[in-house]
Write a structure and sequence with these properties.
mainly alpha; two-stranded antiparallel ribbon; 2 strands
């Protein structure tokens, strides 16, 4: 294939469209979460991912799994965890069976904020999808997103 190959051009245009859709959705949700709850999209995502953990075997996520789920590097995830811990929304403690392991849990204050922010996130997502669906080039991607039925625990587990 050459740089002017129509297949490469179509692939590149598809990627640009997907990136544009993501950017529009994320910007809309970011504004809504920041103004309504003082949360960034990444902070909301981290609280959401960690709130789905459970106690018992395999119940807690390793930092790499958390980083993958919120699409950040491990160091950026650690900084994010620290910021939310400083705000009293998360807590960290040593693993009972492996003292090298550190678990991160959402505090009651974090769960309360997450519950308050979830409708804001969902409303902003719906509004962003509705607005973007009016763009003929992005409408097929919106329909694809709307058709996805991915369980939350599957996100970031690949």
């Amino acid at each position: 294939m050459t740089a002017t190959d129509p297949a490469l051009t179509a692939l590149s245009q598809g990627w640009c469209a997907l990136s544009l859709l993501h950017g529009k959705i994320e910007a809309r949700i970011e504004r809504a979460l920041q103004s309504g709850h003082g949360l960034s999209v990444r902070e909301y995502s981290l609280l959401d991912v960690l709130s789905r953990q459970h106690h018992g075997p395999g119940g807690h996520l390793q930092m790499k799994q958390v980083a993958d789920a919120v699409v950040l590097s491990q160091s950026a995830t650690t900084r994010l965890v620290t910021r939310l811990e400083d705000r009293g929304l998360l807590t960290r403690y040593l693993c009972d069976t492996d003292r090298r392991g550190i678990y991160t849990d959402v505090t009651e204050a974090g769960l309360t904020l997450l519950a308050e922010a979830r409708p804001t996130n969902d409303t902003a997502l719906r509004a962003a999808l509705d607005e973007t669906a009016r763009n003929p080039e992005l409408a097929p991607l919106v329909r694809t997103v709307e058709a996805l039925k991915v369980p939350a625990q599957a996100v970031g587990s690949a």
